[in-house]
Amino acid sequence: MSDAIATARLQNKMKNPIVALILGFIIPGAGQMYAGSVMWGVINLILCIVFAITVIASPLAFVVWLVSLVLGYKGTKAHNDKMLNEAESESDQSA
């Protein structure tokens, strides 16, 4: 397999951190779900909804939303680093 094909396949597997931020901005926890952490994304979504409904805890909804944005962004970065490390180890083994 040529290096161009391997590079294209690797780029298709990688995720865009900006997309995670945009998704998380629109729907709390969606960035984490995009990054691959579906369970934590759903938990953050439910927490944001419950906290937003409760008037006393509504500031907590904002905090949970911000945390889910950061975790979604960092999750995509970690996913991309993992993909790059796997590709490097495969190329080292084949060489």
Automatic annotation (TrEMBL):
Protein origin, superkingdom: Bacteria
Keywords recorded for this protein, A-Z: Membrane, Transmembrane, Transmembrane helix
Entry's transmembrane regions: 18-36, 42-73
Name of this protein: TM2 domain-containing protein
Organism of origin: Vibrio hippocampi
